[in-house]
């Protein structure tokens, strides 16, 4: 699984600089809430393990998704908001060094 691979890679490269772009394609039905819960759980465990190993301290991690939930009773209310506002989370480790301008721009 991609998150397991990335977790191992993050740990192996902990002391050295590296750059990686990774795409996780998760085929799913937009009418099944369990699919979202499964991916959320995997991402939570991935981040928790990296946090425990101190890897995130010197890491910039950008999480991006094209959209959130669809296909439910509230879709008319949610869809207009959802498609204009994709998920974006930027995590900047407390010990990131040598990237001051990039960190400033990301903040």
What can you see in these coordinates?
The structure is a single chain. The protein is mostly helical and 107 residues long. The chain has four helices and two strands, in the order ααβαβα. The chain has a two-stranded antiparallel sheet with strand order 1-2. α1 (2-12) packs parallel to α2 (33-52). The protein starts with a helix and ends with a helix. The model has no long low-confidence stretch (mean pLDDT 76).
Number of strands: 2
Q: Determine the N-to-C terminus distance.
A: 31 Å
- Please tell me how large the radius of gyration is: 16 Å
Strand count, sense and barrel status of the largest sheet are: 2 strands, antiparallel
SS-based class:
mainly alpha
- General shape: globular
Order of helices and strands: HHEHEH
* Helix segment tally: 4
Beta fraction:
5-15%
Mean pLDDT: 76
Describe what is shown at a glance.
The chain is mainly alpha-helical. 45% of the residues lie in helices and 9% in strands. The protein has helices at residues 2-12, 33-52, 75-84, 100-106, and strands at 60-64, 88-92.
